[in-house]
Design goal:
Blueprint (H helix, E strand, L loop, with lengths): L7 E4 L14 H21 L5 E7 L1 H4 L5 H19 L5 E5 L14 H9 L2 E2 L3 H12 L10 E2 L1 H6 L9 H4 L8 H4 L2 H6 L3 H20 L13 H4 L3 H15 L7 H4 L3 H11 L8 H17 L6 H18 L24 H12 L3
Helix pairs in contact: 1-3, 10-12, 10-14, 16-17
Length: 362
């Protein structure tokens, strides 16, 4: 009402725009920070003497959440700002809420797999009545930040993921795993297997971890050639799968792993390639193929004339023919004159040098 003084502020707004860190553009940061950071600053500057200044924050800013760097930063800011206001002698309380049972605009897209993932991380949903009781209790405390969340300490103790540093004192010692297979590093197990069996072992690992991320009880729910997108993976679950595979293998796999290798079978091949002893003797070959692919991508087929493109195609076909054990026929330059190059007798390094010279990548 016009002329009615503002006596208390309760800020509850928030917007999500989830994505892995390399995908967060300035616009996506603004989308999330504006309703949190800008709004709280405006309220701080525009309100006068109030009895309460309450900001609804999120546990994402306290513990961190994969795929929500922008949202975590926004909430961490308002938590810190509450401390700043208190330091100025002004009322302030920030509440980094955990998940609520009730579905709202920000959680309506959370499916069963998402909620299972949060539960495995030790965060259980709050019933409405419990949330309201926690709100009353927090208002009675003389603290700038109070975390109202329902934690499952048993789940944290048994989780495969590292316990967030803030919760280590609550969790205490974690049980030692006695499963003999998990006690042996994957690279060591792989190295002790015949090469023909290694791919199957890694594929079982990928399917099992993917099934766990999605909340399935069996790896049978994840077919080797089924696309991760069709299985229900998004940026958050993709990061969790990468993290689980890092822990299981000891590798440092990239955040874009699932998007670069879109099926369990393709992903297993990548993991196998990176494992010491996974594909004995073939890692340098894959490295050279990656270098060749990068050179071709850098050249850009659309920017090459037809003669150059044809010559490159002929050389690649000759290399592939040698790999398959076939002797290619004598090739001709597209200018009409026969070439003096006997590609069938050229070494791999000579073929790469020829391609480098043609593309100007040397």
């Amino acid at each position: 009402l016009s002329g009615t003084p503002v006596t208390a502020v309760v800020h509850t707004a928030g917007v999500l725009d989830d994505g892995v860190l390399p995908a967060l553009t300035p616009e996506r940061l603004d989308t999330v920070l504006r309703p949190k950071v800008d709004a709280v600053l405006n309220l701080h500057e525009l309100t006068g003497d109030v009895s309460a200044f309450v900001v609804f924050s999120s546990l994402a800013g306290t513990l961190g959440t994969p795929g929500q760097a922008n949202y975590a930063a926004a909430n961490a800011y308002v938590d810190a700002f509450a401390g700043y206001r208190r330091g100025q002698g002004l009322p302030a309380l920030s509440l980094p809420w955990g998940l609520w049972q009730s579905t709202g605009a920000m959680t309506e897209d959370l499916g069963g797999a998402d909620r299972s993932r949060l539960a495995r991380g030790g965060v259980l949903p709050l019933a409405d009545e419990d949330g309201l009781e926690l709100l009353d209790a927090a208002l009675a405390l003389d603290e700038p930040v109070v975390v109202p969340a329902r934690l499952d300490l048993a789940a944290l103790r048994n989780a495969t993921a590292p316990v967030p540093p803030l919760l280590k004192a609550l969790v205490g010692g974690r049980p030692r795993r006695t499963d003999r297979a998990s006690a042996v590093p994957l690279a060591q197990r792989i190295a002790g297997l015949p090469e023909s069996e290694r791919a199957d072992v890694v594929l079982v690992l990928v399917r099992s971890e993917a099934a766990a991320v999605l909340g399935h009880s069996s790896a049978k729910a994840v077919q080797p050639d089924q696309a991760f997108g069709d299985l229900g993976f998004d940026s958050l679950t993709a990061v969790e799968l990468r993290n689980r595979l890092n822990r299981a293998t000891g590798l440092r796999l990239p955040a874009t792993l699932v998007f670069d290798h879109p099926t369990p079978a393709a992903l297993a091949q990548r993991v196998l390639k990176d494992l010491p002893g996974g594909t004995a003797g073939t890692a340098p070959v894959f490295d050279e193929l990656d270098r060749l692919a990068a050179a071709l991508d850098g050249a850009g087929a659309d920017g090459l004339d037809n003669v150059t493109r044809t010559r490159i195609n002929m050389r690649l076909q000759a290399l592939l023919a040698r790999w398959n054990g076939n002797e290619p026929a004598e090739t001709q330059d597209t200018g009409g004159a026969e070439t003096d190059d006997d590609l069938s007798s050229a070494s791999d390094e000579e073929l790469y040098d020829l391609l480098d010279d043609e593309l100007g990548t040397s």
